[in-house]
Design goal:
Layout (H helix, E strand, L loop, with lengths): L4 E2 L2 E5 L6 H17 L5 E6 L5 H14 L3 E7 L2 H9 L5 E5 L8 E7 L8 H11 L13 E3 L1 H12 L9 E5 L9 H7 L3 E5 L20 H8 L3 E5 L6 E5 L4 E2 L1 H12 L3 E5 L4 H9 L3 E5 L3 H11 L3 E3 L5 E3 L8 H14 L10 E7 L2 H7 L5 H11 L2 E6 L5 E7 L5 H17 L1
Parallel strand pairs: 3-4, 3-5, 4-7, 8-9, 8-10, 13-14
Antiparallel strand pairs: 1-2, 2-6, 5-6, 10-11, 11-12, 15-16, 17-19, 18-19
Helix pairs in contact: 1-2, 1-4
Length: about 425
């Protein structure tokens, strides 16, 4: 079990896991990581809008500068901008300070290497090792802070060069009081659309609060009032995308990756163990296939590279399209796919009924389940109900994620039975 990293970087409650000690360890550890691996001693650093961003950023930057690392400070940006810029500049990597879709009391750090990908599992292990060492690298030269504002224009221009126009369309955006509020409207307006943005606060105290990609249900009423053609909802760092169509249909990551697959005619898509089987069935009918990984967009991207696929996604709205970026980019995804959604009738995947529940765990229970095999339970439900069951520990919170998927109409009863079996293990 890793000490610091979870499913998607480092994440936790500010003042608890995310504290000055951890930030300093990360700064000095990453400085040594760059040195040992002979990487450029300059990094991009950006944040989402949460109030704790200044505390986390200044603490990390102080350690990097002390270690002789130059920091190109980008300010508030979407995570997609971080990965896009790393691809186009000779840097050692990047640090994105964000807790993504999580609430304002949390923060975290997504760590990118010089290839513009998040660190692999092995690279995270190496970095954690350096974070736990007494760091004493001395440098005559201290690092400097470089203004990153001019770099932002490169990302904006990249969106405008995707070859898509929105003249005559009315677009509604839900920016989740996060990074997208500074960029998405500007981009769609430049592409010819009439745009209205909701939830564009940048003070960070209400990021993701009852808005954005996690709460898209309210958008349909807003669309009807304003006669909008389509709505795009992002999360705090704009790496997720959820879409609401004019008829009220909400498109999650499974729906959207199917639309991408239709548009580009791909031979295969990478999903996760949480991807609905209905998507797999629909892809199969189109002579495409679904390959599953464990949860986490990093694992999706790793599998895409190994298989030679350009498209992958998580049901939550993380969509990775290697044609234009190396990570999940909600803004670029909305620009790229939006016109296709507006102008084409799509036979959407018929999804299997799915129920999920999170079970809160103590730290002792987390340790208890770390190496526990639930195979007997999985086999039992597959045999009794032809159900697909996922039981996994969260990588960001002390919770057990429980999912059951099947065609049977009694799925809620079966979920209750599943949870009862899991809780009996916890009480043993």
């Amino acid at each position: 079990m890793k000490q610091y990293f979870g499913t998607d970087g480092i994440r936790g409650v500010v003042g608890e896991k995310i504290n000055a000690d951890l930030c300093k360890k990360l700064a000095y550890g990453f400085a040594k990581y760059l040195t040992v691996n002979h990487l450029p001693r300059v990094l991009f650093l950006g944040t989402d809008t949460r109030q704790s961003k200044d505390f986390v950023a200044t603490t990390i930057v102080s350690g990097l500068l002390d270690s002789g690392i130059d920091v190109i400070f980008l300010g508030i940006i979407p995570t997609g901008m971080m990965s896009y810029l790393i691809q186009n500049h000779q840097v050692g990597g990047g640090l994105m300070i964000t807790a993504s879709h999580n609430p304002a009391n949390m923060n975290g750090i997504k760590v990118f290497g010089p290839n513009a990908h998040k660190l692999s599992v092995e690279q995270e292990d190496e970095l954690e090792n350096y974070m736990n060492q007494n760091f004493s690298m001395s440098h005559d030269r201290k690092g400097k802070i470089i203004n990153g504002k001019p770099y932002q224009r490169e990302y904006l221009q990249a969106n405008l060069q995707l070859g898509v126009r929105y003249d005559g369309y009315r677009i509604l955006l839900d920016c989740a009081n996060g990074s997208a509020g500074l960029y998405a409207k500007k981009i769609f307006s430049a592409l010819g659309a009439a745009v209205k943005s909701l939830h564009t606060h940048t003070h960070g105290v209400d990021i993701n609060e009852n808005c954005g990609a996690v709460y898209p249900e309210h958008l349909y009423e807003q669309m009807k009032k304003g006669h909008y053609d389509i709505a795009f909802a992002y999360d705090g760092d704009a790496d997720r995308l959820v879409v609401v169509l004019k008829n009220g249909r909400i498109l999650d990551g499974d729906d959207l990756v199917y639309a991408f697959a239709q548009k580009d005619g791909v031979r295969g898509v990478v999903g996760t163990i949480m991807t609905n089987q209905g998507l797999a069935d629909s892809l199969d009918r189109c002579d495409s296939q679904l390959y599953r990984t464990q949860v986490g967009d990093r694992y999706v991207l790793d599998a895409m590279e190994k298989l030679g696929y350009t498209l992958g996604a998580e049901s939550s709205g993380h969509i990775c399209n290697l044609q234009y970026n190396t990570t999940c980019d909600g803004i670029m995804n909305s620009v790229y796919i939006g016109r296709y959604l507006l102008e084409n009738t799509i036979d959407w995947p018929e999804k299997y009924p799915m129920c999920t529940k999170n079970i809160d765990l103590s730290m002792n229970q987390m340790k208890q389940l770390q190496n526990y095999s639930f195979q007997d339970i999985l086999d039992d439900f597959a045999k009794k109900y032809h159900a697909r069951v996922v039981l996994r520990l969260s990588g960001t919170e002390p919770k057990l994620r429980v999912m059951i998927e099947e065609k049977d109409k009694d799925i809620k009863e079966h979920l209750a039975e599943l949870i009862e079996k899991v809780e009996s293990i916890l009480q043993a």
